[in-house]
From TrEMBL:
Keyword RNA-binding: no
Catalytic activity line of the entry: an acyl phosphate + sn-glycerol 3-phosphate = a 1-acyl-sn-glycero-3-phosphate + phosphate
GO CC, one annotated term: plasma membrane
InterPro entries attached to this UniProt entry: G3P_acylTferase_PlsY
Assembly behavior: Probably interacts with PlsX.
Name recorded for this polypeptide: Glycerol-3-phosphate acyltransferase
Length: 198
């Protein structure tokens, strides 16, 4: 229980670091007031371009990875040879990643106005199941090359992660990954409702 508690608290605080908001403020604006009002990579890329928005991409990924590694560390670092988390580390790692996603969505350091947690989820998943994460990166590269759209490749990669995970973990862990993705769906739904009200 202590490992889960530390994972939840540490994961939430890591996820709450508002990378996009901090970068945008240094450029004189708040991403929550422009574009689609999402303080994340895509909105920043549209506003600033790829190169200037790259720190947001890296930072939001790193938040999830840092949270997952914290969960792994406090639970005794139990993994298989390929880098797949196994019990008793599974629960704390998933808890840390979920908390980081919640922190990104409702950050304590940014007035609880956050993003959709996609990159934070992906970064955390790299700790959960590294081989599936690498397969997703390959899928991203292939789909992006064929469609000439990084956005399409990224969607295929992220939402294909549970499928890529199936050969490496029990189905219960795949279901847990699906549960994490429900938070992303919730945030997209909230954003759509907010856009209708504007």
């Amino acid at each position: 229980m202590m490992a889960v508690a530390v994972s939840l608290i540490g994961g939430y605080l890591a996820g709450s670091v508002p990378v996009a908001v901090l970068l945008a403020r240094s450029r004189g604006f708040d991403p929550r007031d422009v574009g689609d009002r999402n303080p994340g990579f895509w909105n920043m890329r549209r506003r600033l371009g790829w190169r200037a928005a790259a720190p947001v991409f890296a930072g939001d990924l790193a938040k999830g990875t840092a949270a997952g590694l914290l969960g792994l560390l406090v639970s005794g670092w139990h993994t298989e040879a390929l880098g797949v988390v196994v019990p008793p580390s599974t629960g704390p790692v998933y808890a840390a990643v979920a908390a980081a996603m919640a922190g990104h969505a409702w950050p304590v350091f940014a007035g609880f106005r956050g993003g959709r947690s996609v990159l934070t989820f992906a970064g955390g998943f790299a700790v959960v199941c590294l081989p599936a994460f690498l397969l997703a990166l390959l899928a991203l590269a292939l789909v992006a090359a064929v469609t000439r759209s990084f956005a399409v490749g990224a969607r295929v990669a992220v939402f294909g992660l549970p499928v890529a995970q199936l050969p490496f973990t029990p189905v219960e862990q795949v279901a847990a990954t699906g549960a994490l993705m429900c938070l992303i769906a919730l945030r997209f739904g909230q954003a759509a409702l907010a856009a209708r009200r504007r």
